[in-house]
Design goal:
- This protein is mainly α and 252 residues long.
- The chain is 75% helix and 0% strand.
- It starts with a helix and ends with a helix.
Length: 252
């Protein structure tokens, strides 16, 4: 389910909790609305609010750390692509076919991961789509003529293997790092908090608009957390600029 859909569902639950609280305010007997009762409820909501703040802080830290890690790995992969091209150039003119293949692989990577179409508005990082494994086979077929080329071939194989490991690591990390139970518990707590707001607030247009804006704000925060957790999709996906810069330097 997309972050947008999840955020709207949570908005409905949270704002629905506020409306439920306002409904209960109008139906509860007077003895259930005493000062002592309200004081107890305020203490409980304060406890739930504290736990909610801790969970939201944990989710933000987890999503931001995951996003930064993946962006760093992607930048390192882009740098290694340029390094591989330089190593191929030093090997000799017989690597021209491999260097051309490297450029095609990077171009295909850009097209499959960052292209946005009506059929696929949120393209995912797919390490198998670019067929980069062919690079390893082509480098393995090189026949060194001297000690320098033998040393360079070993380095080329090390670099291309490192690239493959990074690409598959990014693929394996492309799923959500936020546990679904965290989000489920969070929406329950937020719904209870907003229900208490509706229970204590007078039923007028100003209060309803304020609760509506509060629910939208909370849902927007959850939306941003979920977007950060999907670095190759959505509005906050990682920029393709490092890979485009790498492509611009290939073959020089």
């Amino acid at each position: 389910m997309s972050p947008t859909a999840v955020s709207w569902i949570k908005f409905g639950c949270v704002f629905g909790g506020a409306l439920l609280g306002m409904f209960l305010r109008a139906t509860l007997p007077e003895r259930h609305q005493s000062t002592d009762t309200k004081d107890v409820l305020k203490l409980l909501i304060g406890l739930i609010g504290t736990m909610t703040a801790l969970v939201i802080g944990l989710l933000i830290a987890t999503a931001a750390s995951s996003y930064a890690t993946r962006r760093g790995e992607f930048t390192q992969m882009s740098a290694n692509i340029v390094l591989l091209d330089r190593e191929l150039a030093h090997y000799g003119p017989e690597t021209k076919e491999v260097r051309d293949l490297l450029g095609r692989v990077v171009t295909r990577e850009l097209q499959t991961t960052w292209s946005t179409t009506a059929a696929s508005p949120h393209a995912k990082f797919d390490p198998s789509a670019a067929r980069a494994d062919i690079l390893f086979d082509k480098i393995e077929e090189l026949e060194p003529r001297n000690d320098v080329q033998r040393s360079l071939k070993a380095q080329l194989l090390t670099t291309v293997i490192s690239l493959g490991q990074t690409r598959w690591l990014l693929f394996e990390q492309s799923g959500s790092s936020i546990p679904t139970p965290f989000l489920a518990v969070l929406v329950i707590w937020l719904s209870l908090i907003f229900a208490s707001f509706g229970l204590f607030a007078p039923p007028n247009a100003t209060v309803i608009v304020a609760l509506l804006l509060g629910a939208l704000s909370v849902s927007a925060a959850i939306f941003l957390i979920l977007e950060l957790d999907l670095p190759f999709e959505g509005l906050l996906r990682i920029s393709d600029e490092p890979l485009r810069k790498a492509l611009a330097h290939l073959g020089q």
